[in-house]
């Protein structure tokens, strides 16, 4: 049996309900602050009934959803930024990292933690750094329950603000899947306009670490073309192993895994693999205590060379990323 839970905390309490579906059950706990009790069976203007016995604002979605496995693993996805904000394994280990002060639900700026989506720019460029997707609300489309995993589908479409910066009719969709020991993203780009457009994209994945001194990042880096995004210098990687002892923001072109992050303090091993994303970026603001440098590292699947998205409702441009978590 697999349970899928959608939760949101409010000032005092949360409401819950249960519904059965075959061999699985789904519990949704919601508490949008606009909820009001049902009165005489009619929804107030602009409101819609919710399963907890209250009404919510029509068109409003929960700020976050929780995917949960019976083995104890769970992951929280925030609709703002489409952000896989936290992932706790069956061993109770937090995988996703974050900078200080970003735990609360705050949609005033992109979350500096978890795994926000970068689209349609990774940077640098004319658009906001890492694009606008990480500062927008994604629309939850579908919840799926199977015997071995739980997943949700979200999508992002343009609005007046995005069209002022990026005048294209796009659909950015991602399917996020929680399995017993892994997480997977399937990202699909569709061009709904009448002319091709170019885009960069990536996942700005933060990983929680015991201390940056305990971390080694290994993969097929040696010989890869590099761009130091701090100095602008180009070069080539000379080793397959990366350790961090200074401010680091390095792009490794043509490297998309498998990449292994080992943390001798947490005794964890993460294996990252990607398809579609051609490059990997490693970032840590070493020495910046205010940014919490010692407790996270970013190892990001990115597509820095612009990809042309063809016109067509059924022409999908696909990307994939998977993280496997193991306890050493």
Tell me what the structure shows.
The chain has 328 residues and is mainly β. It has a domain at 122-327: Beta-galactosidase, Chain A, domain 5. It is built from one helix and 26 strands. The protein has a nine-stranded antiparallel beta sheet with strand order 11-12-13-14-26-23-22-17-20, with no helix packed on it. Strands 10, 15, 16, 18, 19, 21, 24 and 25 form an eight-stranded antiparallel beta sheet that branches. Strands 2-3-1-7-8-9 form a six-stranded mixed beta sheet, with no helix packed on it. Mean pLDDT is 84; it is low at 1-40.
Give the SSE map.
Blueprint: E1 3-6, E2 15-21, E3 24-30, E4 36-37, E5 47-49, E6 54-57, E7 64-68, E8 74-78, E9 83-88, E10 117-118, E11 139-145, E12 150-156, H1 160-165, E13 170-178, E14 182-191, E15 197-203, E16 206-208, E17 215-218, E18 225-228, E19 234-236, E20 241-242, E21 248-252, E22 259-263, E23 268-275, E24 279-284, E25 296-309, E26 312-327
Range of strand content: over 45%
Mean pLDDT: 84
- In total, how many beta strands? 26
How is the main sheet built? 9 strands, antiparallel
C-alpha termini separation: 28 Å
* Low-pLDDT residue intervals, each spanning 5 or more residues: 1-40
Query: Any idea what the CATH architecture of the domain at 122-327 is?
Result: Distorted Sandwich
Round the Cα radius of gyration to an integer and report it: 20 Å
The outline comes out as globular
CATH topology call of the domain at 122-327: Beta-galactosidase, Chain A, domain 5
Structural class: mainly beta
The ordered string of helix (H) and strand (E) elements is EEEEEEEEEEEEHEEEEEEEEEEEEEE
CATH uppermost class of the domain at 122-327: Mainly Beta
Strand arrangement across the biggest beta sheet: 11-12-13-14-26-23-22-17-20
Number of helices: 1
Q: Share of helix among residues?
A: under 10%
